Amino acid sequence: MLSDQERIVITGIGIASPNGTNLAEFRESLLAGRSGVVNYETRYMGPVLAGVCRFDELRYQKKKDVRRGTRAGSIAVYCANEAVRDSGLEWDKVARDRVGVYLGITEHGNVETENEIYEISKFGYDTKVWSHHHNPRTVANNSAGEVTLNMGITGPHLTIGAACAAGNAGFIHAAQMLRLGEVDLAIAGGVSESIHTFGIFASFAAQGALATHEDPTKACRPFDTDRNGIVVAEGGGICTVERLSDAKARGAKIYAEIIGYAMNSDAKDFVLPDSNRQAECVRLALKRAKINPEDVDIVSSHATATEQGDIEEATALRAVFGGSSRTVVNNTKSFIGHAMGAAGALEMLGNLPSFDDGVAHATINLDNLDPRCSLPNLVVNQPRELGNVRIILNNSFGMLGINSVLIIRRFE
Q1: What is the pLDDT of residues 325-375, one digit of tens each?
Q2: Could you give phi then psi for residue 149, rounded to 5 degrees?
Q3: pTM across the whole model
Q4: I want to staple 266 with a disulfide (CB 3.0 to 4.6 A). Which of 134, 175, 277, 285 is the partner?
Q5: What letter would DSSP give residue 154?
Q6: Are the CB atoms for 298 and 392 separated by under 8 Å?
Q7: Alpha-carbon Rg of the chain, whole angstroms?
Q8: What pLDDT is recorded for position 386?
Q9: Consecutive H or E run containing 15
């Protein structure tokens, strides 16, 4: 039995997603089947499809801060401030040197480098017009660092490069640092500015893995026979994370408890996933949470709507949960696209309200299930009433074979 000092809880939530800029909006969109994928123009490629966030950049930043910083930084600053505001913390009384910022990212620096090269191309590639802000914009710790600058945090800050497993990794690192006593409060999650680099669209297109559809809202189709690739999205999901003892002491609202997690590596291929290693990661997280597969109410799938990726994950889930008649599986990317470093955080947060409303949101755009992706209790196109939801397991897997699993439980 863990002590309150060892138990880790989520107490505040900040969200910037393509279909909602707070938890209530995001949840409403998921239950209503409302997609956030739209037509989008990117340099050199023209029209593509993307999940685009619309939040108030100037709510917590001045115009000069936005100009000097990055899109990922602005998303992180917005979400971090929203999380602290939602947490009920008396921020002016918080010891800022005991606060850690741990944010997952996929890639960083591409947007700024592409923009600078484009600008100097107009001046015969004269580097005299290169921005002196380029270095702080492109260092890997940028988004977490921008949060510390904005909020006056003097404790440690890290961005965690874990490809598309990064959103979960932010929470995992936060839980570990809190248990070690390195910090007393963590601001954790994941962020992504991916849609602002044409390179990511061009690379997925070169792989034959960039989604197309005449209707943007139907473009992201995990598990469907007609899926044709990834919809790139931007976004952020950031939470305040605390030891239960500290949350109780201040009478905090507790959204959920982090009870298990795991990360591992496929060691197999640059991009192709391995269902065996994914299943091992899920089983390790279950073991650490001291629960069985049949204890899980909802599995939030990673499924990106790539052919092999969906098949491998479905295979892994059948291997672990095939014997559970009550565990349901859903997907959030079908609504917002793939938010890369923010994906795991947003997908966990989209499911978290199930603890209160007892509903599992659907996987939308699933009209013709690929039989190779068949899963027991897949929630298809319409939300499903479950009643008592206690445990949610969140999958996030990434390139170079990095896998992460996060398990949360309704606080009791």
Answers
A1: 899 999 999 999 999 999 999 999 999 999 999 999 999 999 999 999 999
A2: -65, -45
A3: 0.97
A4: 277
A5: -
A6: yes
A7: 20
A8: 98
A9: strand 8-16
- Is residue 319 domain-resident? yes
Tell me which residues of the chain have a pLDDT lower than 50.
Answer: none
Range of the domain at 245: 8-249
CATH of the domain at 287: 3.40.47.10
Q: Which helix (H) or strand (E) holds 161?
A: strand 157-161
* CA distances (Å), origin 349, targets 42, 224, 248: 29, 24, 22
The reply to whether 83 and 27 lie within a common domain is yes
DSSP-assigned letters across all residues of 325-348: SS-EEEESHHHH-B-GGGHHHHHH
Both structure tokens of 10: 């989520």
Same domain flag for 298 and 377: yes
Buried b (16+ CB within 10 A) or exposed e, 375-409: bebbbbeebbebeebebbbbbbbbbebbbbbbbbb
Residue 225 lies in a domain: yes
Where in the sequence numbering do the catalytic residues fall? 164, 302, 338
Nearest one of 166, 161, 160, 186 to 175, comparing CA atoms: 186
Which strand ranges, in their side-by-side order, compose the sheet holding 37-42?
37-42, 46-51, 232-233
Q: Decide if 42 is inside a domain.
A: yes
Number of domains in the chain: 2
My answer on whether 194 and 322 are in the same domain is no
**25 shares its domain with 157:** yes
23 occurs within a structural domain = yes
Q: Exposure string (b/e) for 210-243, b if CB count within 10 Å is 16 or more? A: bbebeebbbbbbbbbeebbbbbbbbbbbbbbbbb
Of 174, 180, 150, nearest in space to 10 by CA = 174
Report yes or no: 191 and 235 within 8 Å, Cβ to Cβ: yes
Cβ contact 185:94 at 8 Å: yes
